[in-house]
Amino acid sequence: MTADTLYKLYKEKYDAIVVGSGAAGFNAANRLFENDIKNIAIITEDLNLGTSRNAGSDKQTYYKLALESSDLDSVDKMAKVYVDGLQMHGDIAKVEASESVRAFMNLVELGVEFPFNDYGEYIGYKTDHDPNKRATSAGPYTSKQMTEKLEKRASEYGIKILNHYKVVRVFTSNNTFDAILCLHKDSFYLIEANNIIYATGGPANIYANKVYPNGQKGASGFAFEAGIKGMNLTHFQYGMSSLNPKWNVSGTYMQAMPRFYSIDQEGKEHDFLAEHYEDFNELLKNIFLKGYQWPFDVRKIKGSSLIDYLVYKEEIFKKRRVFIDFRENPSFEGIEFNQLDDEAREYILKNKADLPKPIDRLIKMNKKAYDFYLDHGVDLKKQSLEISICAQHNNGGLYIDKDYETNIKGFYTVGEAAGSHGIYRPGGSALNAGQVGSKRASEKISLTRRTTPIKDHYKEASDFIDKFYKLISNESNIHELIREAQAEMTASAAAFRNIKEIKELILKRRNAYNNFYKIVKINKNELIKAFEYYEIIISQLVYLEAMLDYYKKIDAKIGGSTYFEDNIDFDSEGKFVNEIQTVEFDGDKCKFDWEKTREIPSNNNPFEVQWNDYLDKRRVL
Q1: CA 187: distance to chain centroid?
Q2: Is the pLDDT of residue 461 over 90?
């Protein structure tokens, strides 16, 4: 039986398509519809999967311009916070600041329950990397609530959803987007469109240890292969998370100051933090601060981020499993609350949480945090919680301009798939970026019309599919290949990046890409896994090469990861350049460039000048 008798290949065409069904994807489709682009479709691997719908924290944050009188704010002030986070373009920062109110109020009007006071002011609080009260929250599942409300609006509009369609290839010609190839059950669909908004989320599949929900995979590798550039790829956030369920152990979980321990392969417990710290109150201080300072940060390697490093050593070097236990204090010692560091003491005493055990303190300060694990079958009163240093968010992603269009015309990227952040983004800014970006992309599409014909990629798609069907045999190694690739990435190229091992992995991934059809074996039910592994290999290769290039250029002791060749040098300052790395993959090699950061644009023109400019740009281009 030949490959062409095993499947059917259909063609469909739309004015615009959206790939992804998270908060950014649904907002993109809704905005297209509202801008009179009606021949559209949302394409998703699974409507109920993804990070937006299945992730959160003890108080999931949405970041926006301050909207209460107690914290005077401006667009440029907010944009400066973004830019001060380093390696972020000023025009993108200004867009995300100025558009934040419209994006936020759209969610309010849709029914997302952001809190306001008796006077109608939307109240806020300070988030990480920002001194102003720009953050707000609708609770631990803010992004889930956003997604549900946006999906409801899409349903009211009657927007077509192609569910269980997996993107497996992107086709372009003459630096312009043409089509995507999707696998749906046993059939393939070549879906052509004048424009695409790629809202596929972060590249979760490249790591073994991750706090991304299981349904989040990412699809950046297919974009790289089609010629879409990456930017700021090296900027990931990593931190301590529970493994089952997957959840950041930040906020109150750390402020309750639980006990940490590891278990070796013989089942022996190790109080590894006590083995490192001589000062018990210093240990308590750093555990407490992990609540505020959850992501690993090289600048805090001698402070709270030392906890991350010690957990990493237990996991990777000593091959031990790591746990936190809310039933016991660190080192089984009693805590003298009046002897704590000022910040920890004041916080605990203000919350009247000067109680004997971490579980008592947790429930007193934030019972919902305890209830979350209870709802997922884990009673912190009765059992420990296994944790790991996990990948949580990629601040970089695919290359974008201020309208979220990539270097390929007609190809837009929004949400975590877009490289819209610098090194130190304010907490919650990702949710704002997804809403702002999808709005901007949709508006840009509505103001432009395609003039070049779409190239027919039917034969190219058919030939590509044929090669994957030839992988089917009586043997299978695909699950082993995926597990090995993900584990190697976690061990060598996450928060702690071993340059020697990264160089070895680059060679290994390049060999896997070049010899993919010789290496991979699947059974007839594993075709989708072969496409997953193909995407993983490309993504890992590009990300690894970006890390190596970044190290050669910067070698900075800044950000969410540290680079080393033999041993980690905590005292070295390294070198830093406030430029943005871009990368283009041509199937053979990665080409790198470094862009100087663009300044925050200034708008000092008279009203009439800017009004006419506005009117001109809204004429169809």
Answers
A1: 30
A2: yes
